[in-house]
Amino acid sequence: MLSFLLLDFNIFIISGEHEAAAYVEVEETPYTRLCSTKKILTVNGQFPGPTLYVSKGETVVVDVYNKGNYNITIHWHGVNMPRNPWADGPEYVTQCPIQPGGKFRQKIIFSVEEGSLWWHAHSDWSRATVHGAIIIYPKKGTGYPFPKPHAELPIILGEWWKKDIMEVLVEFVQNGGDPQISDAFTINGQPGDLYPCSKSETFKLLVDYGKTYLLRIINVDMQDILFFSIAKHQITIVGTDASYTKPLARDYIAISPGQTIDALLEINQPPDHYYMAARVYSSAEGAEYNNTTTTAIVQYNGNYTRSSPPLLPFLPDYNDTNASVNFTGSLRSLADKDYPVDVPTNITTQLVFTVSVNTLPCSLNKTCEGPNGTRLSSSLNNISFVNPKIDVLEAYYYQINGVFGTRFPSFPPFVFNFTADYLSLLLEIPNLGTEVKVLEYGSVVELVLQGTNLVAGTDHPIHLHGHSFYVVGWGFGNFDKDKDPLGYNLVDPPLLNTIAVPKNGWTTIRFKTENPGTSLVDALSSRTSLNVGNGHGVHSEKWPNSKGTITTATSGHASMLKPLSMLGELLSN
User: Fold this and answer.
1) CA distances from 269 to 25, 230, 265, 300, 307 (A)
2) Tell me, what's the pLDDT at 516?
3) What tens digit of pLDDT does each residue of 59-115 get?
4) In whole angstroms, what separates CA 3 from the centre of its chain?
5) What letters, b where the CB count within 10 A reaches 16 and e where it falls short, cover 407-431?
6) Three-class DSSP labels, 228-276
7) Given this model, what pLDDT does residue 287 score?
């Protein structure tokens, strides 16, 4: 029996037992932050966008109407989309973008995911404002592997530019330098008390003493890994990227762009106002970074004399690499009888991808702002991805020649001391191309992601579309194929879809190619944007028992719908 529900904010939900439909509009909406007003691209007029609530195993059909002024696509970050790559969302990989005035229907299939994910634009820099949370509840009749919290809510860590975001994009694409840093970081769309004209709108989480709250923390920042903490309170991590973890109590977290972390907050301190806060972790020497701090308030209910100003939490220094990697390296899968792990062991396909910042020569009669007058770029295995004119998946499916090549190398084409302090400038120049890596269906893949010190060593958050993966090892320096695998964790490694390769270090992931379609390896952060055609490695898989082969590119009940500005107050009711 279908039930029909009309909700505010122009979202229509038609929900049944197993499938639901949602109607969303991408549109320009005026927002005021940091003492000035500008129009930003939003979904249904909301910033951050609406939250999608589903249960494990359900399917949602989303009709996306583009009423904005630019091309757009929507990616469902961390949703595997089994046998449905057409709805994944990366432009020119699984689909061409939705043009202004156009519409596109996406069938979002939730399968094994359980926990927190997010959705966002996957075209140019539109995701700076076009994004929102996805909350995937356990199946009906089951529960969490931890005591049920009193309440839960998304904590979305983002950023804000006073300048129009498309102007920021055009500027650094034209000059070849670093993108302009943001003017503020945000928590649930608000900069917080420490920024001008922001105090009255600071996000407040109203809490009751003795209760426990589930925070679904999402980093939607364009480029930056962030440290996050709450004054005088530990949080206990219980999940990452829609997969449960062993409980991990910490004073702070480090969270990469695109990553989600579920954490329990126990309200056990003297009643007061306490800041939750986030600021950048930046490891690239000489790179400009945003050194401001965003805040929200954890506000205890009751009568008491509050501290003024609220207490600030400890956050590691902006360049504390050990603080970042030690947190991430402490994550472990839950790995119990109800949530077992399936770590691949019999590897059939071994891959090594270098992840680099690069430079390209400046165009004739142009002035560029990259190192030594060059243009910044980025690459996997020295190939900087160039967007085709039609999407890779369509070209493969309909056997359209000349759109992409299949010569993406399994190993670095040049072997050198990747993490040396001084490297030849000649190594900085990548090849440009639209290359894919073909993987057979059912392959058991080990992929070593090796950071390099070309141009400037930095951390590299990496996201794999269509698959989650086990992070079985990481380290600093150059990967040693004989020694480093001896230290792999094959017992309870975390199951993720986004991982940061440490500065001048390596990370090893394992996964099975059991989801024919597209699997873009998406580099989310560097000194240059990797979402404008640079730095995407690609691969593809054969689909068994089908007439053609589907390409993968490497480099019920649902509701969508409480605005984040209301959630803090709602939790106290």
Assistant:
1) 43, 12, 11, 9, 13
2) 80
3) 999 999 999 999 999 999 999 999 899 999 999 999 999 999 999 999 999 999 999
4) 33
5) ebbeebeeeeebbeeebeeebbbbe
6) EEECCECEEEEEECCEEEEEEEECEEEECCCCEEEEEEECCCCCCEEEE
7) 85
Contact call for residues 83 and 516 (beta carbons, < 8 A): yes
Q: What share of the chain is helix, strand, coil (3-state, %, to 5)?
A: 10, 40, 50
Q: Please give the pLDDT value at position 220.
A: 98
Pairing of strands 19-33, 36-43: antiparallel
Task: Of 464, 437, 403, give the one whose Cα is nearest residue 539.
Answer: 437
* 195 token code pair: 């920024």
Instruction: Write down the residue that tokens 């309170």 correspond to.
Output: 233
Q: How far apart are CA 552 and CA 531, in angstroms?
A: 17
3-state secondary structure of 565: helix
The predicted model gives 212-226 an average pLDDT of 97
Give the burial string for 225-243 (b: 16+ CB within 10 Å, else e): bbbbbbbbbebbbbbbbbb
Q: Which residues pair with 217 in a beta bridge?
A: 155, 261
Cα-Cα end-to-end distance for the chain? 31
Q: Is 24 helix (H, G, I), strand (E, B) or coil?
A: strand
Return the closest-CA partner of residue 168 out of 534, 532, 533, 535: 532
HSE of 538, CA atoms in CB hemisphere, 13 A: 31
| Cis ω for the linkage preceding 412 (within 30 of 0) | no
Q: d(Cα 227, Cα 243) in Å, to the nearest integer?
A: 21
pTM of the model: 0.91
Per mean pLDDT, which range of 311-325, 369-383, 449-463, 544-558 is the poorest? 544-558
**pLDDT surpassing 90 at residue 535:** no
* DSSP string over 29-76: EEEEETTEEEEEEEETTBSSPPPEEEETT-EEEEEEEE-SSS-B-EEE
H/E stretch holding 445: strand 444-451
Give the amino acid at 307: S
Mind listing the pLDDT tens digit for each residue in 379-400? 999 999 998 999 999 998 899 9
